[in-house]
Amino acid sequence: MAEAINAVETRGISKSFGAVTVLTDVDFDVRRGEVHALAGGNGAGKSTLMKIIQGVYQPSSGDILINGERVDITSIQDAKAAGIGMVFQEFSLVPSLTVAQNIFLGVEPLTGGLIDERKAVSRARAVLAEMQVDLDPKAEVGRLGTAYWQLTEIAKALAQNASVLIMDEPTASLARHETEALFALIERLKSRGISIIYISHRMDEVYRVADRITVLRDGRKLFTSELSQTSPAAIVEGIVGKKIEGELTYRPRERGHVQQEVLLEARGLNAGPRVRDVSFTLHAGEIVGLAGLMGSGRTELARVLFGIDAIKGGDVLIRGKKADLSSPNRAIAAGLALIPEDRRDQGLILDHSVRENLLLPLLGRIRRGPLLDLAAGKALAASLIERFGVKVANPGRPVRLLSGGNQQKVVLAKWLGTGPSVLILDEPTAGVDIGTKSEILDRIRGLADEGRGVLIISSEYPELLAVSDRVLVVRDGSIVDDLPRQDIDDEESLQLAVQGVRP
Amino acid sequence: MTKTDPAATLEPALQDARRGFLRDLDWRRYVIYIGFVVVFAFFAILLGDQGFLSPNNLLNILSQTATIAVIAVGMTFVISAAEIDLSVGSVAGLSSVTAAMTISSLGLIPGIIAGLLVGVVVGSVNGALVSMLGIPSFLVTLGMLGVAVGTAQYITDSAPEPILDDTFNNIFGSGSIGPIPVLVVWAVVAVVIGAIVLGRTRYGRQVLATGGNRTAAEYTGIRTRRIKFTVLLVSAVVASIAGMLYAGRLQSGRFQWGDGDELSAIAAVILGGTSLFGGAGTVVGTAFGALLIGLINNGLVLAGLESSQQQIVRGAIIILAVALARKK
Fold it and tell me: Which residues of B touch A338 (CB under 8 A)?
């Protein structure tokens, strides 16, 4: 049998950062004209593997083969020269330039030393025509929708003769018909012999576009399989693994803890395409998990409740009374607190000290006349630091210097100082080590025990299952399922509920 | 069980703490004070014979610095909130003219009110355009610079407008309290109030938070639009007071008073350790920044440098100081 030559192949790739090994002996291959899905949980090593192929990282050991030949990829330029293109999740385009200018950024066609704009436009037009995409090369990228950004990214890679495209969650920011168009484009690219590495957690998509799938777990390859020979359940199990961490198991809370009183009730809430007719209740002492895929509208719901995005229709009642949630300020006054998704951008002022960050929502509390009572502020900050076990030597130093876990504790402590009755936590343990994670989860349980209502969003299902008394499944901006914790057998069944696949 | 001497175990820990303290001590934050002392000592040694250290000369430095210091206090709030105000110099000019004209027609109190009103109106327009329409403050205040100075020139037909009210002239600039020129008193009052408001009030913290990370501040319930509006309002009102200080000292209003002060004020603020990108700032630092500029001007004059040479040296010193103060 004539062995088909692989477009890209890695052999025995290992990578460690200092003492931490993130990839161990990974063999991975992509055939020509193949769509190869890559899946794995957080920290499984997907992005590290992709960064090695793109020349961002150098492997500690192992080889990379392009078209069957061993190559050294030591920079992004090397990877590009070898024909590897990335369609970035966070798009890497210059919004003020046109489509054509972006496509040829850095490799502009020249005539007599000057940029030949007309040549660039006509070549861009040719690439777009080959993609069978209706896009004006002279349009300014900043004025186009996200779907067109993505197309421009793909065109940019193709114009630079990429034969392998890496797409990381390419549909996360697309509407349904745009997704369909992307899939059609992927089919056309395949038929031209272009290989695609498709990173996604969505089983329906993977089955739709991919030929094979490789699942990584804990930096090792678990398996590679033809999709026709495996089931979604097997893949989900592979991603999730069977390991049970003691800290992350559900402890049924005593019955009395979830109280009768309804703290927060949403009635037919509407706000844009990602929050559609959402109704639910949150009781005092209850922890409700929001499960959904990236882009399903979980974060948008949190933003609406906290007054960052405007409510277009429907009501929110707090303790039975209609609440005004038109700004974060009013939401805080109504007793809400939001621990935002991105602590570095939304939760903290990184260059300010730990103490200043902690006190920011509490300034009204440490006033003496018109002035701030700095001594009282110091004492209040110290007590918050102690209560939340923030490990910090000097609270006067910038919060930027703390570890991710400790930064997250500062965000939590900052909000709990305000004594909110309803807490919304968006990915509260993202980028936090396992020890701190279980500590934070314990605190969350403790907060509910004190009679607060907690709404928790997490992409990590073990975590969600460990703390939630009830899980709401969000899909396309709507709540499609309301599952009491005891009705969810395990992570796999939650995963399947989120995917909308019934075993 | 043996008892250990607590002092013996404490000592290494203390040493560690001291070493840690020195390492933690970010000397870059104090560059302005170090620079001030160095430059002062340099001139004192070099120009001691030319009367640099005479009380008269020192008071002179303070008076000459006072108006810039006042403007720079307002500017510290603006820059701390990650905005900029280029219109302060021309607001000072317009305020001097408006106050002078109103004093001669309506009297002292209406004149002062009219001067302040210039600041309120210009500041409100600047603030509204920046916070409501989201136009960058650089552009809004650059435009306003032209509008204000043009208005001042137009309504006076380019001529100085004399002020004959001695009370006004004495309060705003010409008078003195004992040996202390009243200008210096104004500057000290502005710095003290500014330092307390920025460092010790809820508003000040919210200004710094808005400048440090607007998204996080917004998520914390701070009304960042209101903060952006008020810093520009404060800056313009303070500039209008500075305009009246010019008017009182020079006993007239003229559109040219304050010309170019926005750049001196920004230099003083940045020299004082306020981050040009917002989020960190101190008014006391700003005051020393203004003083350092005044000190350099005075020393270079005493050293007999020509004005062209002065400009070169002053520019080089400012760049050097900011380069030393930058973060690694």
Answer: 219
Q: Per CATH, is A257-335+420-503 categorized as 3.30.70.270? A: no
Sign of the CA dihedral A364, A366, A368, A373? negative
**Minimum mean pLDDT range among A78-92, A269-283, B251-265:** A78-92
d(CA A53, CA A40): 17
- Do A363 and B202 count as a contact with CB atoms less than 8 A apart? yes
Total residues belonging to chain A: 503
How many Å apart are CA A390 and CA A292, to the nearest integer?
30
* Domain assignment present for B231: yes
The pLDDT assigned to A251 comes to 65
CB A193 within 8 Å of CB A33: yes
Q: Which whole number is the average pLDDT over B101-122?
A: 96
Check residue B183 and give left, alpha or beta (phi > 0: left; psi -120 to 50: alpha): alpha
The reply to whether B216 touches chain A by the CB within 8 Å rule is yes
Q: Tens digits of per-residue pLDDT, A375-386?
A: 999 999 999 999
Which pairing describes strands A262-271 and A313-318: parallel, antiparallel, or unpaired?
A: antiparallel
Collect all residues of chain A within an 8 Å Cβ-Cβ radius of residue B201: 370-372
Kindly state whether B218 is in contact with chain A, defined as any CB-CB distance less than 8 angstroms: yes
Give me the DSSP letters along A231-289: -HHHHHHHHH-S---GGGS--PPPGGGS-S-EEEEEEEEEETTTEEEEEEEEETT-EEE
Average pLDDT over residues B118-137: 96
**How many separate domains does chain B show?**
1
Compare all CA atoms of chain A with the CA of B25 and give the residue at the minimum distance: A397
Q: How far is A338 from chain B (nearest CA, A)?
A: 8
Range of the domain at B132: 39-325
Instruction: Compute the distance between CA of residue A81 and CA of residue A217 in angstroms, rounded to an integer.
Output: 30
The ipTM assigned to this model is: 0.79
Contact of A328 with chain B, judged by CB distance below 8 Å, is answered with yes
Which parts of A63-137 fold into alpha helices (H)? 76-81, 99-103, 117-130
pLDDT at position A328 is 92
For an interface test with B, the pick among A309, A324, A363, A397 (most B C-beta atoms closer than 10 Å) comes out as A363
Of the candidates B219, B220, B279, the beta carbon closest to that of A351 is on B279
Q: What is the CATH number of domain A6-240?
A: 3.40.50.300
CA nearest to A431, candidates A407, A465, A411:
A407
Say what the pLDDT of residue B276 is.
86
Evaluate whether residue B266 is within a structural domain.
Answer: yes
pLDDT at A242: 53
Q: Which amino acid is at A227?
A: L
The ranges assigned to domains in chain A are 6-240, 257-335+420-503, 347-419
Cα distance from B328 to chain A (closest Cα, Å)?
13
B212 with A370: Cβ contact below 8 A: no
Q: Interhelix angle for A117-130 vs A146-159, to 10°?
A: 100
Distance from CA of B217 to the nearest CA of A (A): 8
Q: Does A359 touch chain B (CB under 8 A)?
A: yes
Is residue B106 situated within a structural domain? yes
Could you tell me the CATH number of the domain that includes residue B99?
1.10.3470
Chain B interface includes A266 (CB < 8 A)? no
pLDDT in tens, B77-87: 999 999 999 99
